[in-house]
Amino acid sequence: RAIQRENQLTTAKISAALVFGVLLGTAAGLIGVGGGEFRTPILLYVIGLPVVTAIAVNLLVGLLTVVVSFFRRFQLGLLNGHSVNIALIMSATSIIGSYIGALLTDRIPEKPLKKVLAAFLIIVGLKIGLEPFVEIPITFTFTLGFVEEALLAALIGLAIGVISGTLGVAGGEFRIPALIYIFSLDIVAAGTASLLVSIPTVASGFLKHQNMGHMNRNATVIAVVMGIGSVLGAFIGASYAGVVEKEVLKVLL
Fold first, then answer.
1. What is the DSSP string of 112-171?
2. pLDDT in tens, 122-132
3. What count of other Cβ atoms lies within 10 Å of the Cβ of residue 6?
C-alpha cells in the first residue's frame, strides 16, 4: 500500500512538474542545455519516481526542451557553418553512445545507479556553480585539420552520448566547454550547436528506454506536463539567450 501511495499521481506532483518544468526550461534555454541535471532531483525527490523511470522521463522532457531551444536559437541566427559541421559529426556517434548508455541502466542495480547519478550531479553542480568565480587560463590553441577535428568530435560525441543514455541528461554542460576550448566556438554558437547534437542523442536514449519498458502511464503524464512547462520555459529562455547574464544564473542554479 505504501508503494502504491508513493506511485499515485497527486495534484501536488502534477503541479510541481508544471512549475519546475517552466522554471528549469527557462534556465536550460538561457544556457543552451537540456536541463536534465536540474530536473533529476525534482523527479526523484519531489515527484518520487524510481531511478530508471526518472531517467526515461528526463530524456523525454529534455527532448522537447532542446528541440524548442534549438529552433528558437536557430530562428535568431545563433548558429554558423563551422558549428553545424562539428555538431553533425558529434550527432552520429552520440546516437550510438546514447543507445549503449540506455542498455547499461538495465545492467546496473538501482542503488549503485543512484549513487553514480548523485556523484554526476555533484560534479556538474560544482562545475556550474564555480565557473563564475574560477577563471581557467587558456594558454594554448588547437590548430586542427579536418580529419583530426572530425575524429575528436566523433569521440567526444560518443562519450557524452553514453553519459546521456545512462543518466538521462543531454550532456551540454560538458559538450559546450569542449566546443569552446577545442573547436574554438564562441559561447552562444557552442550552446546552439550543443542543442543540435542533443536532439538525436536524447531521442535515441529515450526510445531505447521506452522499448525497455521504463515508462508507465503515470510517468507519461508527468513527462507530458513537465514537457509542456519546459517547452514554454525553453522558448522564453532561448529568446533571451543573448541578453541575460549567464554567470548569475549559474550560481543560482
1. HHHHHHHHHHHHHHHHHHHTTT------------HHHHHHHHHHHHHHHHHHHHHHT---
2. 888 787 778 77
3. 10
